[in-house]
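During the no-cost extension, the postdoctoral fellow (Dr. R.K.) reprocessed legacy sequence entries with the updated structure-token encoder. One reprocessed record is reproduced below for audit purposes.
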Amino acid sequence: MKDLFDKIYKDKGPLGKWASVAEGYFVFPKLEGPIANRMGFHGREVITWSVNDYLGLANHPEVRKVDAQAAADYGSAYPMGARMMSGHTDLHEQLQNELAEFVNKEAAYLLNFGYQGCMSTIDALVSKDDVIVYDVDAHACIIDGVRLHQGKRFTYKHNDLESIEKNLQRATKIASETGGGILVISEGVFGMRGEQGKLKEIVALKEKYNFRLFVDDAHGFGTLGKTGAGAGEEQGVQDQIDVYFATFAKSLASTGAFIAADQEIIDYLKYNLRSQMFAKSLQMQLVVGALKRLDMLRTMPELKDKLWENVNALQSGLKARGFDIGTTQSCVTPVYLKGSIPEAMALVKDLRENYGIFCSIVVYPVIPKGLILLRLIPTATHTMQDIEETLDAFDAIRTRLDSGVYKRLSAAVAEAFA
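Re-encoded structure tokens follow.
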């Protein structure tokens, strides 16, 4: 019999094997100072494109004031216990009601964390006789939720309607035999590519197939739609989304999440979501803070307008300079380049050290080998100067990449960060 840890000693995983040269700089970096368009990194100021503070609320003075007062009023412990036992309050109910109204659903329920809440919701919605059909590019929280499912599950090719229908046909056959139902899962906005899920086309398939739709709209909530209610509102199908999920960690610049659906569905879920039934209630300071943020989202459309002014300037500028940003339909701005992981490390080091640009780097296994994805997240706090400096920097690093500079430097990257 092997030692349980043998596999850990021998294989650190596709990302973990780079830890000795990457940790503290390329992964687990330490940004310093208030959350803003420009922050500190390794002793220098950088333009930050990797903070999901879409509406610029993280350090908005009104938000900071409410957060501070809530902390003074309630501390960080209140209420104690799980919601079902001793952690329920009028303000939790108020926030749920306001969220439900905002996303045009009958009811909503608060979740302590987006990741575990999404997993637990999927787990609660299905039984072993049911079938899950989900996008192959779904976020890790969806994948982990699907892993909990003891029945059949199928992935469809990303946003591919033919693949969706093919898998719905397979699911329908199985569900007919087991006596179960079908849950289709998509994201409102896919966080790496920036593409919206094909929600309008998916709900149209309800005319042919009997299924329910769960949408993770973490990046769409607050950024898409006339009011900011998300990808469903943007595509005109919010009423056809059966269970809507969004997090506070993006547009609301906080911690927590929620699900919204018909009242009877929410009543069922709140009694069957294991991650909420057996976990401490969302702290009151976060609830009060979320109420303030939601009110600003409703009453200050200029925040979203400024966000999209910056998004359009950045994305149009990149396209005008010949960069491949894929088919993004959201604020998420991917820039695709060709190169190895060591080249990507050399490129990003140059970008940060010599051009003062900090953005997220995505490589294999998240994307195919040979590709480098630099993901930029515009916010309402960015300026046109930030955008122009970034465009010039990207021009420069592309030239160095294409001319082989990073290929020559990449051999030294591992040694420099060992």
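The chain has a mean pLDDT of 93. Residues 6-54+301-416 form a domain with the Aspartate Aminotransferase, domain 1 fold (CATH 3.90.1150.10). The remaining legacy entries will be reprocessed before the final report is submitted.
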